[in-house]
Amino acid sequence: ILNVEQSPQSLHVQEGDSTNFTCSFPSSNFYALHWYRWETAKSPEALFVMTLNGDEKKKGRISATLNTKEGYSYLYIKGSQPEDSATYLCASNTGTASKLTFGTGTRLQVTL
Amino acid sequence: GAVVSQHPSRVICKSGTSVKIECRSLDFQATTMFWYRQFPKQSLMLMATSNEGSKATYEQGVEKDKFLINHASLTLSTLTVTSAHPEDSSFYICSARAAGTRTGELFFGEGSRLTVL
């Protein structure tokens, strides 16, 4: 994998459903993996920064896992709420470069 | 959390004019700021890395004379799109990294949508 790829591109779930998204990234020269939440007309907001293989982080109903050997991360949302509706971006920080390479995002819509 | 303010949020200009976008870190010092551009249905693409007090580092394919970046203080970076043309119409967004870390989270501005007529 040369780029950061996210799937699905969009997702429509009902309130109370649990859901998850995937982020694939280059596994060579891995440094860190970031997840951001981006609501319409607002600034992207950092959710997690993960660096260690097997790392798992949690913030409320949202959690993320990291597999640096195979180059993927999952973001889970338990019991989705309408306020979870946003675009979820992942970004990879590789090698000695300090810049991030972003995926195209997964757009989540949660309806009542 | 740290706040980054970016403006204008929207700007419409005529072809050939120059447009300046400001990015300010309100409650922290940002030695490094990043400028991104996003075209529809594409990912955020890094244009340049702006370091306080020194010249910006541009990504391959980004014209430094077209997109002037100035980072004169620890709280302000500006992007000037010079002699804008319709193909420069895009969404531009800045981010800042808190001092002292390369893996640390980025704090983003709200973005600026530029439309060149």
Number-wise, the strands of chain A total 11
Multimeric organization: heterodimer
Number of helices of chain B: 0
Structural class of chain B: mainly beta
Q: Which stretches of chain A are low in confidence, meaning pLDDT under 50 for 5 or more residues running?
A: none
Span from first to last CA of chain A? 37 Å
Task: State the shape of chain B.
Answer: globular
Task: Specify the structural class of chain A.
Answer: mainly beta
User: What is the helical fraction of chain A, as a range of percent?
Assistant: under 10%
Biggest pleated sheet of chain B? 7 strands, mixed
Mean of residue pLDDT of chain B? 91
Main beta sheet strand tally, sense and closure of chain A? 6 strands, mixed
Radius of gyration of chain B: 13 Å
Calculate Rg of chain A over CA atoms.
13 Å
Question: Helix coverage percent of residues of chain B?
Answer: under 10%
Query: What are the low-pLDDT stretches of chain B, counting only 5+ consecutive residues below 50?
Result: none
Order of helices and strands of chain B: EEEEEEEEEEE
